[in-house]
Amino acid sequence: MFDSLNAVVLARAQFGFTVSFHFIFPAFSIGLASYLLVLEALWLKTGKALYLDLFMYWLKIFAVAFGMGVVSGIVMSYQFGTNWSVYSQKVGPIIGPLMAYEVLTAFFLEAGFLGVMLFGMSKVGKSLHFFATCMVALGTLISATWIISANSWMQTPTGFAINSSGQFVPSGAWSTILFNPSFPYRLVHTVIGAYLTTALAVGAVGAWHLRRNRHDPYARTMFSMAMWMAALVAPMQILAGDTQGLNTLHYQPAKVLAMEGDYDRNPHGAPLILFGMPSNADATVRDAVEIPRLGSLVLLHDPNAALPGLKDFPRDQWPPVPIVFWSFRIMVALGMSMLALGVWSLVARARGRLFEWHWLHRAAILMGPSGFVAVIAGWVTTEVGRQPYTVYGQLLTAESHSPLAAPAVAASLVAFVVVYFAVFGAGTTYILRMMNRVPEAREREPAHVPQHAAGITPAPGINR
Amino acid sequence: MSANDLAVVWAGIIALAVFAYVVMDGFDLGIGILFPIFAVGDERDQAMNSIAPVWDGNETWLVLGGGGLLAAFPLAYAIILPATYPLMIAMLLGLVFRGVAFEFRWRDAEHRRYWDAAFTLGSVIAAAAQGITLGAVLKGIRVAHNAYAGGWLDWLSPFSLLTGASIVLGYALLGATWLVWKTEGGAQQHARRMALRLGALTLIAMVAVSVATPFLQYDYWRRWFTLPNVFLTAQVPLLVIIAAGVFFWSLRRGAERLPFLMVLALFLLNFIGLGVSVFPYLVPREVTIWDAAAPVRSQEFMLVGAAIIVPIIIGYTAWAYWVFRGKAGTHGYH
Q1: Which of A267, A306, B79, B154 lies 20 to 30 Å (CA to CA) from residue B1?
Q2: Model confidence band, residue A294 (pLDDT cutoffs 50, 70, 90)
Q3: CB contact under 8 A, B70 and A463
């Protein structure tokens, strides 16, 4: 019993680690693909070389991020079997096709258009190249759609029956499965999150170069575009998060109560707990700092509405409250900081000090990585909040894992951690190095990296 | 289409993905395996350039194979992966290492030696893990109540180590003959010498695996050697002898493309031989494609996508190889 419990905890740690690491790269490449699309469109529309140079500058960074996303993604398609074989066997008929479509889309995208986008500018002409850029941007979004649909189905499963061998099989139309109740909210929240993450990263790079030379036109353009994005998208993201919260309260109330730290029921309006130390053992939040009735106002849009507590649910259906409670707070705090940065940038813009206000630039640099932290914290909230189930309300995590031995999982976990930090640490260093370089006029692929290989590359574009 | 036929169609698609993966990633893994033997500088750069434009397209077939197996035959996926757990993890980590080494060796000239070493190590580990997995599956996996029922080192046996070594040799041979095709001058002569030796070693390994396999389980013996099967199955070794003959002859005669094509033929014959031994089992003697098949509705739903996208991928891949058909050179394809 002790051994098997350990193996499950280790298997979860391993899966959580590899999937979190993986997600950093798509979160960036989804946003960056769309940003590149906008830059190329602006170049085509205005004819200004500045946009083309920025396009080429970010394209190199995109190539490395995309490559690392592919490499870490290969691991994911096998982790389901190595760590969660019972889950795979039972849920394969539903999740499998969604993931297969994701693979086919990504494959198609990679084989078809990425090479043209990376190396084909001189080869295929402007409009066909722009088309390839559009397809890559679209492809990243389609890919996200499939995988979010699969994930959402695990949170709010619909359209299934259970057959004689205990498998989940489709019972109605596939659309019922694809468009399960939490899917639209989760998709919007995730995609906006990716855009915001990218905007903050681009903004930080812009600010970094403004600190060196505030007249640099590239830095100004990057920074200005990114700050517009932060100012417009951060409030949208907060709104999207709020509606997803309402959806979750409806379908997965225990998760929301864990996020809020509400152990006790509040028949006359729940407070909003700002901070505190939740403890499942004592079923209470110690040292809580709370604002009366605000919890009900946020969740139910009525300060006096009754809110159940975790104690209304059987103890074995509680998620690990401290993790969810804190990851949620990290995400929200970062979201609010992003909003503040966006508002600050609007004030600076109105006063004509957008490119002069050093403290704004410092803040933007500090906020550069915040999007990545926020998306990981958000995923931790929703995935740990799904516990103790893999398929919410249907299949327990404790009944989903492979017949594993703890030493095997422990050894592989260590191997993953070591290899990932070495390999992706090096990759991140190269990306930071590229970001540190000042964009130049007639920006191109460096001559000594002719054989970059993300995707099947149409030939001669790469040889200069 | 009946449920039974649909399962056969999906088995065909996955077999295609696996074979495409084995031969295509096979030659670029092979180049990784042989990398330390190449001279630093010109020879290494030519070798790297010859596979740079195609390697990650090659690797994506592995994702399609894994994803397809999960979707079409979840039971087989759920049994084979836990049974070969340490091998799968080793393979994935190996592929991570060599995948990024590809990119980073150009970005970071200072540490190129280390990335080159990572490239080789990753390639050897990935190839060996795949070969050992093949041997472990052939030897048989303990199954009880629709789940893997063995320990975490059950995959280890003299037979699986033999298949592991064979795959490493076979991939190296694919890599060497690919270089005979794609390089010129001293690098090509070097590759030719390596191909001769590796060809002999690979054939020995093939014979050893072929001789050992029928003794693993009576079923394999029965499929190959009983009448009237033997009249059909005997064609496979016959064709192997012919392909091997042409391989050595063409290599000595100085042909550039034929040796690689003959090695492909050898791989194909081995793959057919594998099919003869195991079809319709996915886990030999335990789980057939029909036992493991996902419901018709799931397989149908995916077939729509696969029927559209897989041909496009094949077409595009063929075109990309056509574009890069010349010699690789030290600065990229001419």
Answers
A1: B79
A2: confident
A3: no
